[in-house]
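2024-03-11 09:14:02 INFO queue: dequeued item Ribokinase, len=305
2024-03-11 09:14:02 INFO validating residues
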Amino acid sequence: MTGRTDTTDVLVLGGAGVDTIIPVPELPLPYADSYMIDSGIRTRAGQTGDFVALGLARLGLRTHHLDLLGDDPEGDLVRALHREHGIALTALPQPAGTKRAVNLVGPDGRRLSLYDTSRAHPDDRFPEGRLRALAAASRHVHVTITQPCAHALPVLRETGRPFSTDLHDWDGENPYHEPFAFAADVVFLSAANLTDPERTMRRIAERGRAGTVVATAGAEGALLLADGELTRIPAVTPPAPVVDSNGAGDAFAAAFLYGRLSGEPPRRCARYGAVAGAYACTVPATRADAIGRDELLREASEPSR
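2024-03-11 09:14:37 INFO prediction written
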């Protein structure tokens, strides 16, 4: 747009909250009256929107996060995380409180997440004027699938800003995810619950706007559908032992968007995502961290391992 001045590289919508991390001896966890958690139970800020915003900021992108937060200790943790990492945050009042979840984390890094859905309401909305202004000042918008982001999609379309979304472990059928899948220009999702990932990816591209669809598959790498061509992206060997897979998909999305906004071709963007996702698996669940730009570029330049 002629004459426009962007003040933000990426606006992240939604997905702010806190997780309580409980290390468990195995998953699924057998029934017992009680378990002794010797390594401790900890609560830290960081859900999907927070992790994407953190990943973008660590890669040097000007990042702004918009969401609803409660006036509660959990909201204070989220605000502190953003202050610590220099991430601009617009926190709108949420009377129901800040979103929370409990993550059971096994010794192999797998997790089971329990989400408190009482901290949101179907009628939650971002003020349209605020949303338009922040989107108009951004090069790109990343939309989480948490409330109230579904209501923001028509407004984003009207602003003309390109945007991405992450469908996480969508099964390809749940109708809640479809407005996100068919509205975004870039779609990320996990292949975990897909019986035919390629078919789902092509359906997203054919029915929606997405020119790029990425399905991540953990240690099996990822599938990239760009301009109708399907490519398998190899996984990257993590630089340290895997301790927690939480946040790996968010890290992948952040690094992919970094590449996209830097003008890199889709395959290079996906390589960045694979490197960042592997790094995220080495970060303990009790800590919020992401790969830095120098390390990302260095690791991405190495041959696939």
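2024-03-11 09:14:37 INFO annotate: The domain at 8-301 is CATH 3.40.1190.20 (UDP-N-acetylmuramoyl-L-alanine:D-glutamate ligase).
2024-03-11 09:14:38 INFO item closed
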